Amino acid sequence: MINLDDVQAVQNLDTKELLSTLGQLPEQCEAAWCLAEQLELPKIGAVSNIVVTGLGVSAISGDLLRVFCGSRISVPVIVNRDYIMPEFVSADTLVFAAAYSGNTEATLSAYEEARSKNAYLIVIASGGRLTEKAVSDRITVIKLPDHMLPRLAMAQLFLPMLCVLYRLGLLEEMTGEIADMVSHLKIIREELKPEIPENQNPAKQLARLLYNRIPVFWGSAGITEVAAYRWKEIINESAKLPAFWNMLPDLDFSETLALKSHCDLQRQFFVVFLRDAYDHPMVQRRTEAIKEMIAENAAGSTDLNSSGSTTLARAFSLFYTGDYAGIYLALLCGSDPGC
């Protein structure tokens, strides 16, 4: 097993330099926002609904947009993970077709259907066939840098969408919240980067807790819901391990029952409760009750609390910790996290 505090050994195994890329997240956020600020937007009239179509990290970016906008705008945001578009998509729908590589089959198909419905379209990609089609069709493209793995491009996919909505007047002033988020991420980076030893590094400690166990991430409706899904994804892709996610209060009617029985299988599951200060009071009560209920049967559980003073800072504090923990877990397992 690798020593996570052996920086040279970590660098040797991390051949795609994911930790280096992750360490640049605050600056990547600034660049992604500036990219969309400078974009020449197409003429967009009244919008009755917004659809983000994509898969993987592109869809999760859409989930975050849906959650963030849910209490801020009256226009619904829907995430489409399919080859086809919902029937309601029409000429007053704003569609973000997002695919970091630009070659995702389902997104290409959905893009064509959105065009056929005369929806307002904006493409977000680093290149590929989606960019080629959009350029040919004279559709606005937010061209992302193409030097990173898609799994680490969540901020690059999410922030331009947010900026477009802000520029269209659907969201109120956002620059202060973006600056606050970037500042907070810089603080978190100093706590989680590879040079910080395991006994002082929360992400390394979490990776150690998850080692040789089956991770289960439970959030609640809102930003921790998105974070739970995101954590599952980064474990799957980087550590090449099974992981599962769900959200309160819904999971209390199903998944918790699976950890009530006494058998060896349950003792392999380690539950991470992703928590936020703004979780509904009933969710907070349910969480404490569930922790007591599964204590005898699961391998263990721990809380991971969001931090920060704004919604974006709190959300990205969870994403950042999860990304670091997922990469550290891959290294503990002897896997190159970028392969």
TrEMBL record:
A GO molecular-function descriptor: mannose-6-phosphate isomerase activity
Keywords: Isomerase
Family: Belongs to the PGI/PMI family.
GO process annotations (BP): carbohydrate derivative metabolic process; carbohydrate metabolic process
Protein's name in the database: Mannose-6-phosphate isomerase
Broadest EC class assigned to this enzyme: isomerase
Domain SIS: from-to ranges: 35-173
Cytoplasm keyword on record: no
Domain of life of the native organism: Bacteria
E.C. code: 5.3.1.8
InterPro entries: Glu6P/Mann6P_isomerase_C (IPR019490), SIS_dom (IPR001347), SIS_dom_sf (IPR046348), SIS_PGI/PMI_1 (IPR035484)
